[in-house]
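Box S2. Input/output pair 1.
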Amino acid sequence: MEKLLFHILIIFGFSSPAFGKVEISIPESRCETVDTLSFMNKEVKKLFSTPTEQGSLGWCYGLTAAELISAEIGMPVSAAHISALFNKKAESNFFIRTMKKFLNSSSSDVYESGEIDLAIKNVLQKKVCLEDDMPFIDNSSGGLPSAILGLDRARKAKLKGEEEYACHEIANSKALLNLEYSIKEIMEVLDQYSLNSGIEKLMDQHCGDQKIKVPIMKIKSIRVPRRGSNKELSAKLGKLFGKIEKKLVSGKPVGISYDAIKVSSYDSKHTGSVIGRKWFNGRCNFKIRNYWGDNCFEYNRKDISACKHNDSGAFWVTDQKFFEMVYKITLIE
């Protein structure tokens, strides 16, 4: 097999990359068309082909973590449960808990934001729900995001003595999550546990014996290099894109952490999965699965190379834009 090394043309706007714009160009000879979905079994392909809407719930890291695991084991696992398990652990961390309270950036007590690699490592050798049993992509009436935030509102209402409103919110969440518990039983869990632990407890009990154990995996995260001489940076980027190519041609997605402001109006950190590559319009382009539903309205058209409503919630960016927006990749070796 050909050694997976790139020769990347790098042009600096100034003599030093520390002060000028870095321009990269992957040659067409190293940009063969790859569609990872063509390697997947029917169940996993369905997961990657179904648009996901994360709504106002910042669990994108859990969605990407679940996709990488699902592709690796050939079985769709629940992004919701993986996120809940991560948040449960985060909530038990004194430092994280204190920082959240200090920053007070959200009116919700639901923990949000996280790292793809940490979310995967947190569930290794643990039992997690299957996607069918605790789906994130059931978007009817808002689906899981609405249900989770509803449980937060219910718990706060209960603490204020607003029993009727609390029961109303629990009833809505119960229906959205298709939970078999009674409203009283859900209320007892929210009373007994902290919010994030309570959410995980409800999911865990709901899935029962249908959960599967995630095997040991080797997780690797790599920061996208930005500095160095022309020769040094070219070598580092060549190695990085070589690793991405190796995963894609083996039929496996690559997780990315990126700045959403580079392709949209959202000034926040975001994650997604690289699921394809193709040469068009004179550039090497990467296909990224996103979690903003199946529309293309969220993107700045000048910053992406393609987006179609039948692309199942994915968009394309050039190699240059990929370099500019992505700050870390995560893969299962």
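Box S3. Input/output pair 2.
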Amino acid sequence: MFQASSHAEGGHEGKQGAARSVGLLVAAVGVVYGDIGTSPLYTLKEVFTGGYGVPVNHDGVLGI
């Protein structure tokens, strides 16, 4: 009888742990993909407007 009770409690904690893990996973994926999504925009801005002097023309755009 003690084992069944222990098993039920362990199962309940497992569900809470799984829900917490899923929440952390979603947060981590949001951070990573948020960075991946915005980094190219900042890179393009710096290449064309920063001190690099890449001209905004056909060759400059294809060259980067």
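Caption for Box S3: The helical segments are 2-49, 58-63. The CA atoms of residues 15 and 36 lie 31 Å apart.
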